[in-house]
Amino acid sequence: MNLLGVILLVLLGVLLLLLLWPAVARFSVAGGQAEVSLRYLFLKKQLYPRPEQAEKPAKPKKKKKKEPTGEEKEKPDRLAVFKSLSVSDWLEIGPDLIAKCLRPVRALLRRTTLARFSLCVLVSGADAEATAVAFGRWQAAVCNAVAVLDRIIRLRAQRIDITPDFCGETTRFETSGEVWLCPLAVLAAALNLAVIALCAYLKIRKISKQKANAC
Question: What are phi and psi of 71, to 5 degrees?
């Protein structure tokens, strides 16, 4: 194997490693304040709240003089292809298109992991009876939500704690976790959706042409 082949294999290996290395989105909500950050390899970006940046002085914009161009040409309607379809056409195309788009989305969600998930809720009400009722509702809602979430993505719960607080006045909660995404899975889903969108556009364009020829 020559030197060029070795270099290509090394580059492909590095590219594959970068695509398989997960991107981690961390979130936390506590005390009415939320924080969201994104980390990939050694890079970290604060998404919310965004760090304050010094405002740059706005540069005065120079007004450009419009030169007379004679008769203005009419711009083609880019949505004419879609407008030509009737409601029955959309009812025929829509369900199949939605079903095709859901497949890559579901595949991406199945490869998504919610790790180190923590949820702590202190349930309070106006009195002891209201607190007990609210506690039961919170417990049922959280259990159902976790069960549904576990079917959609890979859930690794670290702590889920729902406690009645008979001395408190308002319900308080804190939650945190990490969402792990594989860049290769995201890229595959995006390419799949792009192909589905292109095929759908070609089909819509074909129907539009058939209707124009029929007229």
Answer: -75, 130
**What is the total count of domains within the chain?**
1
Identify the pLDDT of residue 73: 54
pLDDT confidence of residue 55: 64
Question: Residues 146, 160: contact at Cβ < 8 Å?
Answer: yes
- Give the range of the structural domain holding residue 104, as residue numbers without chain letter: 22-46+86-214
Longest CA pairwise span in the chain (Å): 79
Q: Judge whether 137 lies within some domain.
A: yes
Torsion of Cα atoms, 51 then 52 then 58 then 59, to 10°:
-40
Residue 163 lies in a domain: yes
Amino acid identity of 103?
R
In a domain, 81, yes or no: no
End-to-end Cα separation, the chain, in angstroms: 64
Average the pLDDT over 44-57 and give the result: 78
Judge residue 52's burial from the number of C-beta atoms within 10 Å of its C-beta, 0-12 exposed, 13-18 middle, 19 or more buried.
exposed
Q: Is the peptide bond between 183 and the residue preceding it cis, with omega within 30 degrees of 0?
A: no
Asked if residue 110 is part of any domain, the answer here is: yes
- Record the tokens describing residue 27, joined without a space: 């979130």
Helices (H), 111-127: none
Label residue 115 exposed, middle or buried (CB < 10 Å: 0-12, 13-18, 19+): middle
Q: What is the pLDDT of residue 209?
A: 85
Average pLDDT taken over every residue of the chain: 86
Residue 31, SS3 per DSSP: coil
Fill in the amino acid letter for 69.
Answer: T
Rounded to 5 degrees, what are φ and ψ at 154?
-85, 115
